[in-house]
Each structure stands twice: as structure tokens, then as C-alpha cells.
Amino acid sequence: MTVPQHRPWRGVLVATALPLTAELAVDHARFADHCTWLVENGCDGVVPNGSLGEYQVLTPEERAEVVETAVSALGGERVMPGVSAYGAAEARRWAEHARDAGCASVMLLPPNAYRADERSVLAHFEEVAKAGLPVVAYNNPIDTKVDLVPELLAKLHREGFVQAVKEFSGDPRRAYRLAELAPELDLLIGADDVLLELAVAGAKGWVAGYPNALPRASVQLYRAAVAGDLDTALPLYRQLHQLLRWDSQVEFVQAIKLSMDIVGRHGGPVRPPRVPLLPEQEAAVRAATEKAVAAGLA
């Protein structure tokens, strides 16, 4: 498969939180507005139907409409949907839906219904790549129990199955090994709280959580970090890190949605089985967000 000269997964792509009504229905009007607001505030695009977008608890109809809403708001070039599913056939169907909706790339977890071996992982990505869109692998060994180590990612890239990886292992050492094994594979920051470490190591993009609430400051941090402007990036990273580390916590969806509410956006409720934050968690997120607002970062 030919990789487009313009790689649409580069830059700051926000893994979008999904606005829900009080009755827990998807609020598509608010979602379209949120996508537009993110781009207006400097983000390069959106990743709907990621784990932050609660895709696991959407009906197939809702999941399809979320992608279509984002494309209507921004155009397909700026939309990289998550197409993860338990089976490769279903994931491929989601990739085909993304293609037909006009998207330019998709993001895919490895098989995660069980601890898949290397042959299963290769077969999974091969099947989804048949949809014809460039695939960004999503490595999240913490949640999936399947680790896309640099050697396996290099093999997936060599076969033409993936063009980039959202790296969520939390181990910045992998960036250097990956650059040696697969220099043309784009590394994307996958966890907000290792942004600076992976940016300095050569990341080409950030699939981001906290820009849902603080897009301008987050984009400023990313641009400074990838440019090697540590005089700008390091103080900003220290200011934001208390919030950024929530992206790697179990309650990341609730935390980010609460921060959105605090800065005047609609974060709103989450769908079960997620439950509201504990009082002490809510107090911690609220204090850190209000501190960021007071510092002019919202």
C-alpha cells in the first residue's frame, strides 16, 4: 500500500471525549461543535471512537454516526477513527466505513479479546489493512495485555500493515529502538504524561487526551517540545503535568470530562460501567484544572 505523502496522523489529533445528554444519549450537535472548537484552537484533527470516546459502550449505529458527525464538521482528512473490535472482520468493516465516510486513516488496537500471539497480531492488522486506508497501530499493553514491542511493530511496518504507532506503554526508551528498527514508522505520543519525553525522542504526532479541555496550552506545549524549545516546553509541561497524568489513570474519561466542564465546555456524564469520580478524585481534578485556568492555560 502506498503511504500518502501527507501523513494525516501527524500533529495534535485529539482523542475526542463524547458529549452525552442527561439521558446518556449521544449529543451529536455538541460533538460537532466540540470537533470544530478543537481545530479552531490549534489542534490538527480528531480521533473519534477511541477509548476516551467510550466506543465500547456505543451501539453500531451510534459508532457509525459519531464518525460521520466528525467528518461533516471537519472533513475526512482531519478525522482518524478508532476501528478496534474483538474480531478482525469487524475491525475491517469499521475501517471500510471510515474509508467510505471520507476519512484518510484509521487507528487500530491489536486483538484484545485474548492474549494474542505474534501470528494472530500480524493476521489482524493484515486483514484491516485490506480496507485500503493507512493504519495507525495503537499499542496499549496495559489494557489489552498484547504488547506491540518495537520488533513486532517493525515487522508490521515492513509488511505494509501499519504506517505509525500510538505508543502508550509509557516507556520512552522504545522510541529509540523503534527509530533504529523502522525509521519510516511514525511514532505518535499515546499518553499525555510522557509527551515531553517522546517529543524529544522524535515523535511526529500526539493522539491526545487533555486538549479536550485545554487545547491551546496543549498545542503550545506540543509544538515547543517537538521543536526542541525546552525553555518554553519544560515550564509548561510542569504546570500541566498534574492534569496530564490523569490520561494514564483508570478514570481518565471522567477526569477529562470534568476538566471540560470546569473550563466551560460540555464534558458531562459517562456511560456505565464507568461511574462518577470519588469525591477525593473530583477534588484533585478540580483543583488542578482551576490552577491551570488561573495560570491562563484554558
TrEMBL record:
<dbReference type="InterPro" id="IPR013785">
    <property type="entry name" value="Aldolase_TIM"/>
</dbReference>
<comment type="similarity">
    <text>Belongs to the DapA family.</text>
</comment>
<protein>
    <submittedName>
        <fullName>Dihydrodipicolinate synthase family protein</fullName>
    </submittedName>
</protein>
<dbReference type="InterPro" id="IPR002220">
    <property type="entry name" value="DapA-like"/>
</dbReference>
<dbReference type="Pfam" id="PF00701">
    <property type="entry name" value="DHDPS"/>
</dbReference>
<keyword id="KW-0456">Lyase</keyword>
